[in-house]
Design goal:
Length: 202
């Protein structure tokens, strides 16, 4: 399986990082080795001094698709989850400055927190509230209604470049409020009122 991530899909997050507003979705990949095994802590990697959390709604692909029409995109997923796109912001800044790929900053081991998945019917995906709580403080509070590109548009866009396969996961972008993690942090993710993951930082 592969993980396809969308960058810059919420206007307020683009502003907080002083990024340019894209005219097309920003897309990058994480390998399956990036997935943080369930119940494992996240270990701060030695190569960065600035690891950021980015909480994101996840979509799990349920069948093979290529050149998917946006109006049929909803047939390619049944389940939704929540995750963290851990980012070595210091490395990413260096990569951006040099015009280099982001993988070292985005795709390292443990950089993808993936919750359990839930039937999409349990939620209103057009108006889905989600939060990241860091040590009992809500640090990110997003809603899919603020996405620049909706889930079905993202699937259509991604499938022009990458064949989507059953089990692939899409990270749909982070809202504003990204910030630094530190050792001993406890990060809790919520979809509406449901706690869907808890990660300790070590
Ligand atoms: Mg992200």
């Amino acid at each position: 399986m592969k993980i396809i991530c969308i960058g810059r899909n919420y206007a307020k997050h683009i502003e907080e990082l002083a990024n340019e507003k894209p005219t097309e979705p920003v897309v990058f990949l994480k390998p399956d080795s990036a997935i943080l095994p369930k119940k494992m802590p996240f270990f701060m990697p030695p190569f960065s001094n600035d690891i950021h959390y980015e909480v994101e709604v996840l979509i799990k692909i349920n069948k093979v698709g290529k050149y998917i029409d946006p109006k049929f995109a909803h047939k390619y997923y049944d389940e939704v989850g929540l995750g963290i796109d851990f980012t070595a912001r210091d490395i990413q800044v260096q990569c951006k400055e040099k015009g280099l790929p982001w993988e070292k900053a985005k795709a390292f081991d443990g950089s993808a927190v993936v919750s359990n998945f839930y039937p999409k019917e349990q939620f209103d995906l057009e108006n889905l509230q989600f939060q990241l709580v860091q040590n009992n403080i809500v640090v990110q509070d997003g809603n899919t209604n603020a996405m620049l590109w909706k889930i079905d548009e993202l699937i259509a866009y991604i499938s022009q470049f990458f064949t989507l396969k059953k089990g692939d996961i899409i990270f749909t972008g982070t809202p504003a409020g990204v910030g630094k993690v530190a050792e001993n942090d406890i990060l809790i993710g919520k979809l509406e009122d449901k706690e869907v993951f808890q990660v300790k930082v070590k």
